[in-house]
Amino acid sequence: MTDETLTVEIWRGKDTGRFETYQVPHRQSQTILDVVTWIQRHREPALAYRFACRVGMCGSCAMTVNGRPRWTCRTHVSKVAASGGVRIEPLRNLPRIKDLVTDMTPFFEKWQTARGRFEPSATRSEPMAAIPSDDPERRIVDAGIECINCGVCHAACDVVAWNPDYVGPAALNRAWTLANDQRDGDRAGVLKAVSAAGGCHACHTHGSCVEHCPVGLNPTAGIAGLKRMTLSALLKGGLS
Amino acid sequence: MIRRSQRHLGFFAALAHRLSGLLLALFLPAHFLVLGLALEGDTALEGAIRWADQPLVKMAEWGLVVLLTLHLSFGLRVLVLEFMPWRDSRKAMIGLGAAASLFAGLLFLFNLG
Fold first, then answer.
1. Residue A207 to residue B8, Cβ atoms within 8 A
2. Has residue B75 been placed in a domain?
3. Which of B5, B14, B86 sits opposite A69 (nearest CB)?
4. Is B41 inside any structural domain?
5. Which of A38, A73, A214, B51 could make an SS bond with A33 (beta carbons 3.0 to 4.6 A apart)?
6. Which residues 6+ apart lie within 8 Å of A118 measured at CB?
7. So what's the architecture of A105-235 in CATH?
8. How far apart are CA B29 and CA B34, in angstroms?
9. Do the first three CATH levels of A5-102 and A105-235 match, i.e. the same topology?
């Protein structure tokens, strides 16, 4: 990397392919997504990548940058390319479609497996449940609810790589927020889903998810919470 | 190979926990073999104990003490994380476990003298 030019290697292809090298003008406050966009617009129109909001809200632009999964729209080049160039690959642990684009289908299917969807306990004609913001369970939900579904934790997780049945930290984090949501109509169902094979008990507590989560969530804490909750439910006969 | 995304304290603690467990498992048969000598009489056991007084074996014993403390403290760490109320003490507990194994190793060395 010079002050004016940045050397960027980008994965081209699907499961088989190669890294192509590009020289990109280096600009102040440039993000990795800016770099990929510049290459697509000026050098490689066929380059496939995914993005939408560009401001860290939609979670669609995650890629592997110099070996670490990151949200590219909020990753400054100056942060990751200090000692050389930049190597950009698709996220790990997900099927590749083309170049930097992965198929997120298994990621969201695992959310369903972990029962990561809200089951209402009331109809829309009934009054809304009033839950104080300082309620202990609500605080737990608040701590985990801001997930942007970027898949960074899923790509960073060793257990996801080792065990294809493991639902992963994002799905379990969602399940954790629902298991603590007083408005959910089937919290026991969440605990049953996450205590099955490939659920929370498959986690090895490495903490890669919390190390890499771009929005600072702590899925490891949620998964540990699910382990305690499911054990308690088991002892009370609530998992049968 | 350790990937860049794995270069953090939690992964290294898990790796140390796993490797120390494997090495201790390799040592266990030898441990039981020596204990079994007691059944054959005090001479056989005494001979093994004398053999273990050699400096190289003592060094290996030091390694075992460090590995055992490391494995124990990192195992307790996982139990605390998973069964006690969450306290964001993940990295502090890793530091504590590493310090405990170093302390046990030092204690063993002092007792040698």
1. yes
2. yes
3. B5
4. no
5. A73
6. A178, A181, A183, A184
7. Orthogonal Bundle (1.10)
8. 9
9. no
Which of B86, B88, B89 best probes binding to A when mutated, by most A CB atoms within 10 angstroms? B86
C-alpha to C-alpha distance for A229 and A76, rounded to whole angstroms: 39
On chain B, the residues whose CB falls within 8 A of the CB of A204 are 14
In a mutational test of the A interface, the residue from B4, B82, B88 whose CB has the highest number of chain A CBs within 10 Å is: B82
- Best to test chain B binding among A211, A232, A234 (most B CBs inside 10 Å): A211
Please choose, from the candidates B107, B104, B79, B103, the residue with its C-alpha nearest in 3D space to the C-alpha of residue B93. Answer: B79
The count of structural domains within chain B is 1
Cβ proximity of B97 and B77 under 8 Å: yes
B50 and A CB contact within 8 Å: no
Q: Which residues pair with A117 in a beta bridge?
A: none
- The domain in which residue B91 lies consists of 4-24+54-112
Any A CB within 8 A of B54 CB: no
- The domain segmentation of chain A, as residue ranges, is 5-102, 105-235
Q: Is the CB of A208 inside 8 Å of chain B's CB atoms? A: yes
**Closest-CA residue in chain B for A92?**
B5
The one-character DSSP state at A31 is: B
Which residues in chain B have Cβ-Cβ distances shorter than 8 Å to A212?
Answer: 5
Per-residue pLDDT of chain A (240 residues; tens, 9 = 90+): 556 899 999 999 999 999 999 999 999 999 999 999 999 999 999 999 999 999 999 999 999 999 999 999 999 999 998 767 899 999 999 999 999 999 999 999 999 999 999 999 999 999 988 999 999 999 999 999 999 999 999 999 999 999 999 999 999 999 999 999 999 999 999 999 999 999 999 999 999 999 999 999 999 999 999 999 999 999 998 787
Answer whether B81 sits within 8 Å of A205, measured CB to CB. Answer: yes
Is residue B14 a part of any domain in this protein? yes
Query: Is some CB atom of chain B closer than 8 A to the CB atom of A149?
Result: no
HSE of B47, CA atoms in CB hemisphere, 13 A: 9
**CATH number for the segment(s) A5-102:** 3.10.20.30
